[in-house]
């Protein structure tokens, strides 16, 4: 579907995901893709079909610009590389994160088990042990041909894009601003309805929520007519959406503090009291609870870094308290 002059939006399907698909964008004059979908033949066939409707082929692609390294945004790149000599562009942090992930993944089952204990989910260790074999595959890094920095300008045939580094949902996340067309390719940084997953693992030393809130400020006042996200639908009023997202996270921080006042102290205890939009905590499966706990941990870390709560480690379990 053409969404602006020379810009086409492709729906790349995702199986077993309620979002249904990832958007990939083709800048037609430069044969540039912004993001590629999940690694599946269904997804690749969908990309081929939508390219063919424009009387072009995968082999005609020249480059893929990656907003972030999550699998639903980079998974098709190796499929494309088997058929086209494409260059991949991503933020410099993407390369650093890949190397970090390789180190972490070598001990991923142990890291996950230790994290479960630290977060107060030790009673679920037996369930986790069923999946020990699933952690043994070594990840292969994606070759990145050009590393980008915040503020870089990409002068492409038919488009000039400004790179805006927007860490939060992912440490390497970027948005791309086409000032002439008044378009922002927002990736997963800002979505029109759902809130982007902002999470943290216990082996990471970051404050992703702080990063995310600052990154919202970096884009909210851009002169825009259209925001093209990685999922859901296109939208227009970015300042309003940014205000809603900030309000959501402030409310989540207040929920965390309310849980602490009620006597909850571990990550899993606190996560169990929060109102989750997807489904209630008690109805979540193990893996969804793990994602919710990682998001809760990000909010606790943010509060700790602001000096609003304290953290102590007692018997290999993290406990949080208000002053």
Task: Provide a descriptive summary of the structure in words.
It is a single chain. The longest helix is centred in the last third of the chain and has 24 residues, at 238-261. This protein has a domain at 2-97 and 138-237: Metallo-beta-lactamase, Chain A. With 323 residues, the protein is of the alpha/beta class. It contains ten helices and 14 strands. The protein is globular and about 60 Å long. Helix 8 packs across helix 10. The mean pLDDT is 95.
Topology readout:
Layout: E1 2-4, E2 7-13, E3 21-27, E4 32-34, H1 41-52, E5 63-65, H2 71-74, H3 77-81, E6 87-91, H4 92-105, H5 108-118, H6 125-129, E7 146-148, E8 153-156, E9 159-165, E10 174-178, E11 183-187, H7 208-219, E12 226-229, H8 238-261, H9 267-271, H10 286-305, E13 310-314, E14 317-321
Parallel strand pairs: 4-5, 5-6, 6-7, 11-12
Antiparallel strand pairs: 1-2, 2-3, 3-4, 8-9, 9-10, 10-11, 13-14
Helix pairs in contact: 8-10
Task: Please name the defining characteristics of this protein.
323 residues, 10 helices, 5-stranded mixed β-sheet, alpha/beta, 7-stranded mixed β-sheet, Metallo-beta-lactamase, Chain A, 14 strands
Summarize the model shown.
The protein is an alpha/beta fold and 323 residues long.
CATH fold title of one domain: Metallo-beta-lactamase, Chain A
Give the overall average pLDDT: 95
What is the count of DSSP helices, taking H or I runs of 4+ residues?
10
What characterizes the major β-sheet? 7 strands, mixed
How many DSSP E strands?
A: 14
Sheet-strand content, in percent, reads: 15-25%
The top level CATH class name of one domain: Alpha Beta
The coarse overall form would be globular
- Class computed from helices, strands and strand pairing: alpha/beta
Percent range of helical residues: 25-40%
The CATH superfamily of one domain turns out to be Ribonuclease Z/Hydroxyacylglutathione hydrolase-like
